[in-house]
Amino acid sequence: MVIILHPGTDKDTAERVIDKVKKLGFTPHPIYGVINTVIAVIGDRTQEAMEALEAMPGVDRVVPILRPYKLAGREVKPEKSVITLPNGVEMGGRTVGVIAGPCAVESREQFLETAGYVKQAGAQVLRGFIYKARTSPHDFQGVRDEGIQLLREARELTGMPLITEILDTRDVEKLHDVVDLFQIGARNMQNYALLTEVGLSDRPVVLKRGLSATIDDLLKAAEYILVGGNQQVMLCERGIRTFETQTRNTLDISAVPVLQRYTHLPVLVDPSHAGGHDWLVPALSKAAIAAGADGLIIETHPDPEHAMVDGAQSLTPEGFKELMGQLPAFAYAAGRTM
Ligand code: PEP
Ligand code: MN
Hints:
With 338 residues, the protein is an alpha/beta fold. The protein is built from eleven helices and 14 strands. The relative contact order is 0.12. The model has no long low-confidence stretch (mean pLDDT 95). The structure holds phosphoenolpyruvate and manganese (II) ion (MN). The site of manganese (II) ion has 5 residues, from loops.
């Protein structure tokens, strides 16, 4: 059920409702919106509990949550969630945000050079991946812990929020003070231990759609993070497996408006992993913005030909700069800014 408080209900009154929920044997999940505060309550609902809560001061109404994604759904929070990053950048607001960087951190020279030009071109968040989730164990697994110091350096040098992919529950604590956001990649979308662990963290999380996951699977995976208390979750469509072979994956562009309809969480698109070719990235980025994406994740490399991972889909510094110059017009056309 979801308990909707009257607009402007003070904190003490809200706390009393939260205490009552606990006394009734449920776990409350308060969601603070701009207009309304709501308390989502997961568990078997009983008519008596709903009535007891509805009678409390501050409570406007109590309604059942019908959809399976109880905390991610618009039922509990009709307005969009905006996630504010340490540099003041808002994801999920009016501005379309860009997360950019190499697929993998390879060397100091490569990473710092990339950090410099993505910042200059206007990206808001820097990608710095030191652990790589590869389909084959024989492929490059990332520079791993050797790269931690480099992440610190790039973050300090650029002042940009930094995102990294984590593969292990132990990475959450280890990298808490090194990065600003965590990514859970497509291959780990249903790694419930990892989802649960980031759910207890105060770091925003980008959760990518699994290779063969439905939109509902993605939303239910997000629930694992939200239920732990971490409400700073962004979802990312990154292409799914289909019979098509011209592209690395098939960008499910419909996922953007579908997600925007059913969830309040920001929706990102990764055109790089969807298309798999650098020449596809501009068209897919523009399509994503037109479809209503809140942000993009774009791979770029100073020398794509010699990249250790995903060179074919990585934009050159010039290509990245050119695309960043083209995107604002599409953002404006979609009623957004950039
Ligand atoms: C990545 O972002 O580098 C990545 C591995 O993406 P995905 O998990 O979508 O394959
Ligand atoms: Mn990649």
